[in-house]
Amino acid sequence: GAVVSQHPSWVICKSGTSVKIECRSLDFQATTMFWYRQFPKQSLMLMATSNEGSKATYEQGVEKDKFLINHASLTLSTLTVTSAHPEDSSFYICSATSGTGADTQYFGPGTRLTVL
Amino acid sequence: QKEVEQDPGPLSVPEGAIVSLNCTYSNSAFQYFMWYRQYSRKGPELLMYTYSSGNKEDGRFTAQVDKSSKYISLFIRDSQPSDSATYLCAMTRTSSNTGKLIFGQGTTLQVKP
After folding, report:
1. Does A33 touch chain B if contact means CB atoms closer than 8 Å?
2. Secondary structure (3-state) at A86
3. CA pair distance B7, B98, nearest whole angstrom
4. Do A43 and B106 touch (CB under 8 A)?
5. Counting beta carbons within 10 angstroms of the beta carbon of residue A86, is it exposed (0 to 12), middle (13 to 18) or buried (19 or more)?
6. Distance (Å) from the C-alpha of residue A19 to the closest C-alpha of chain B?
7. Do the Cβ atoms of A41 and B101 come within 8 Å?
8. Whole-angstrom Cα distance, residue A71 to residue A55?
9. Contacts with A101 from chain B: Cβ below 8 Å
10. Of A50, A84, B22, B76, which has the fewest Cβ atoms less than 10 A away?
11. What is the spatial distance between Cα A84 and Cα B105, in angstroms, rounded to a whole number?
12. Would you say residue A40 has pLDDT above 80?
């Protein structure tokens, strides 16, 4: 149980285009989902927290107009990187929480974004 | 200064060795601690969750927390090649599922047959 999927697993796009990444909880309902980014050999950095049906809460330094997050249902959250640039190239990982404890975040397999 | 410090390694050990992975932290507000395993190009997978100072054992894994020293450890006994991965420590202030997790940089472990 507690499986989280992401789509696509990898994407290459041209600079200036937008890319949408989907995060789905497959076998549970997630009221809260999280989006992280991870640069090579660095730790996961929380970008934003999204709750179903409400606006996402962004971490300091994360541009909310550039990284659009939509959490339209209890099983789906999307991250759209708008006007992507090479410096946005990274590994984007989502997590979803199914329970009430700090140990109930389940992570997706990640999406590798490369912006040319 | 980073809130959580973790030696990135890489750490290479022979099969069967005992592995010790460590993190230090600076913020005494962190009360809940986790260890995740991450295989290459995959998402993290929770291994251990602790919130008390002392040891917690689960199979070949033992998590140790020393809040007075702001130091946590993960020990792997009888290490196997399948344990080769990056190990991330994480911690949070609250037991809530919506609390912000702060991750260490991760330690890359290679277990050689």
Report:
1. no
2. helix
3. 27
4. yes
5. exposed
6. 19
7. no
8. 8
9. 49, 95-97
10. B22
11. 25
12. yes
**Which residue among B8, B43, B95 places its CB closest to the CB of A102?**
B95
- Residue B94 — pLDDT band, cuts 50, 70, 90? confident
pLDDT cut 70: percent of chain B above it:
100
Per-residue pLDDT reduced to its tens digit, A51-89? 888 889 999 999 999 999 998 899 999 999 999 999 999
At B81, give phi and psi (nearest 5°): -55, -30
A93 phi, psi to nearest 5 deg: -125, 135
pLDDT in tens, A83-95: 999 999 999 999 9
pLDDT greater at residue B108 or residue B40: B108
Chain A: closest CA distance from residue B8 (Å): 8
What is the distance in angstroms between the CA of the first residue and the CA of the last residue of chain A? 37
